[in-house]
Every structure is written in structure tokens, then in C-alpha cells.
Write a sequence for this structure.
């Protein structure tokens, strides 16, 4: 059948319009490779961002998630897991994407506010209801007969924060120094009965398998456990002194450019800093960076004296080399009799 010339022009125009619309409103998929305890956070955040992006651009965006121990997740990306963005437990793991695979620039932390950490957390204890072992502070974790659960610092970012929080506490005691801190942490890990590969695995070991008297964990994990499993089963103990945990985020430049997702990936991370993103973080028991949002949720979090990794350990590069590299302090105290 031959089209009338005018109808033919209309058909061509309609086809061109359809192609243009297809380009303008093409679906985009992002992969966010994250650490263990952020499942609930990003389930909520991804839905909010998808709605925001649809309303703003007309584009449908789907965000896929991968979760595991932060160190393992970083190695997976280095080995070829094509993450458009990473939201990991600590800066050292994201640094590795530059140093070992050149996937991101060296100055990645300068691209977003607060050194690319949109929310913070700290390390607390989760105990069984009634706190039968009377756990109040870090020194209680070294007592005979107290069974401790923590993830493995060799694979879990949260576990490295656990370890450094304990070490920093020991340093801050009267006459505290590296020698006394080493002995304290060695004694504490002598009480650790299970070293899971990630923080969520440790939570499962403690809450579902019923192993241990106390779990050293992320603050948000402890709050989530009491919310989901019931305050009649577990109690949060916030030690007077702990570490400021700063989980950072980054676009994975080479992957995002390969996928053509840079614009959406950058918007995704920036939305974490928006009032809505900060509110979602707070609702999932992360401490928001936005002061107004933080003030609204201040009663949710216990007061705690926080020290930073830069203040006590000279930053992640130094802490990693000293404590967690093969043959480092953690390996040494784990290999020697306790």
C-alpha cells in the first residue's frame, strides 16, 4: 500500500517523535554496591529517589542493590562487579577502587560534602533483655564469662570500626598507650566466640541463633533489631565513649561512564544530602549530617563522646596498614594464645 504524501510525512514525523521520546524517557538501571546493614536504608531511599527522578525528568530509574561485608564488596568491584555507585562502610575500601583498579580519581572524597559521608553512625552494644551480664562499658567485654559476638575485621568494615572503637577507648583510659590498648583488645577478642564475615551475619548469630551475651555492632543495626524483634528481647547499651563512624559514598566513574549513567548516578548520591534523603537516613537510625534534620531526631540517639579515626589513628591508610593488613596487629593478637 502506498501512503498519501501528506500521510507519509505525518508517519515519518510520528516515528521521529517516538524515537525522540524513547531517548528522552529511556529507563536507566543503577547498581549500588553497599555494605551489610544498609538494606533497609536503601530500600526506602531507592523508592524515594525513583519517584523524585521520575517527577523531575520523566525517566524511570531502577536501582539494584548488592550487600555484604564492606571489604568483600570493594574487592568484588575491583574484580569486575560493575557498580555504578558504591556506598561502603569506610573510606579505605573506596580508596582501594582507585589504588587497585583506577576506577575512581584519588580525590573522590572531595566531590561531595562532609568528605562524601552523607550520614554517620557509631558503635554500640546489643544485649539480651535485662542485661543479665550487666554490660555497661567496653571494659565489661573483657570479663571472664562474657561471650562477645562481632564480625571479622578482615572482611567487614563495621568490624574494623568495632575494633578501633575498643582500641580508642583503651587509649583514653588513665595511663593508656599502644601497649595497654593492644592487651585490652587482645583480651576482648579472646571473648569473641563467632567472627562472621559481615555485620548482618553477626546480628543474625546473636539474635536468631541465640549465641553470645553481647553483640558489638553499628548503632543503626542495634536500633533496627530492637524495633523489628522487640524491646522485650533486646536492649541497647551505648558506651560513654565510642568512635565516629563515617560511611562514605562515591560514583564509580569508569563504570558509570561505560554504562552512560553518570548523570543519574551523581543525582542519586546528591539526593542523599537532600532533606528527604537525610530524613530517610534518620528514620533508618543513621545520624544525619543536615543540622535541621538531626535536630528533629536528636532524642532518638543516646549521647556519646565520639572520637574520630583521624584524631586517634592518623586516618584510614595508617590504621589499615597497622591493624588490618596481613601480619598486622589483628592477625598478631588472633594468632597468639589468649
Amino acid at each position: 500500500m502506498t501512503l498519501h504524501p501528506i500521510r507519509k510525512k505525518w508517519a515519518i514525523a510520528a516515528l521521529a517523535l517516538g524515537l525522540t521520546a524513547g531517548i528522552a524517557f529511556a529507563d536507566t538501571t543503577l547498581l549500588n554496591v553497599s555494605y551489610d546493614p544498609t538494606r533497609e536504608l536503601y530500600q526506602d531511599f531507592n523508592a524515594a529517589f525513583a519517584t523524585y527522578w521520575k517527577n523531575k525528568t520523566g525517566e524511570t530509574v531502577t536501582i539494584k542493590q548488592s550487600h555484604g561485608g564492606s571489604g568483600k564488596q570493594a574487592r568484588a568491584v575491583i574484580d569486575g562487579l560493575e557498580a555504578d555507585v558504591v556506598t561502603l562502610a569506610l573510606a579505605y575500601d573506596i580508596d582501594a577502587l582507585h589504588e587497585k583498579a583506577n576506577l575512581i580519581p584519588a580525590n573522590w572524597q572531595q566531590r561531595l560534602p562532609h568528605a562524601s559521608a552523607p550520614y554517620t553512625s557509631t558503635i554500640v552494644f546489643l544485649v539480651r533483655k535485662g542485661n543479665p551480664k550487666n554490660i555497661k562499658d567496653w571494659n565489661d567485654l573483657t570479663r571472664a564469662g562474657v561471650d562477645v559476638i562481632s564480625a571479622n575485621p578482615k572482611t567487614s568494615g563495621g568490624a574494623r570500626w568495632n575494633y578501633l572503637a575498643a582500641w580508642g577507648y583503651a587509649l583514653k583510659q588513665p595511663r593508656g598507650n599502644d601497649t595497654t590498648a593492644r592487651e585490652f583488645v587482645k583480651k576482648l577478642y579472646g571473648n569473641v566466640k563467632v567472627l562472621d564475615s559481615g555485620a548482618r551475619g553477626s546480628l543474625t548469630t546473636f539474635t536468631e541463633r541465640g549465641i553470645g551475651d553481647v553483640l558489638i555492632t553499628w548503632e543503626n543495626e542495634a536500633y533496627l533489631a530492637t524495633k523489628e524483634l522487640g524491646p522485650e528481647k533486646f536492649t541497647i547499651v551505648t558506651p560513654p565513649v565510642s568512635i565516629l563512624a563515617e560511611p562514605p559514598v562515591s560514583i564509580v566513574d569508569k563504570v558509570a561512564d561505560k554504562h552512560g549513567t553518570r548523570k543519574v548516578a551523581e543525582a542519586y548520591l546528591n539526593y542523599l544530602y537532600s532533606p528527604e534523603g537525610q530524613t530517610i537516613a534518620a528514620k533508618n537510625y543513621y545520624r544525619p549530617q543536615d543540622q535541621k534534620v538531626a535536630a528533629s531526631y536528636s532524642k532518638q540517639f543516646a549521647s556519646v563522646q565520639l572520637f574520630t579515626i583521624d584524631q586517634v589513628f592518623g586516618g584510614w591508610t595508617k590504621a589499615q596498614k597497622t591493624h588490618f593488613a596481613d601480619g598486622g596487629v589483628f592477625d598478631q593478637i588472633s594468632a597468639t594464645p589468649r
Observations:
- The longest strand covers residues 28-35.
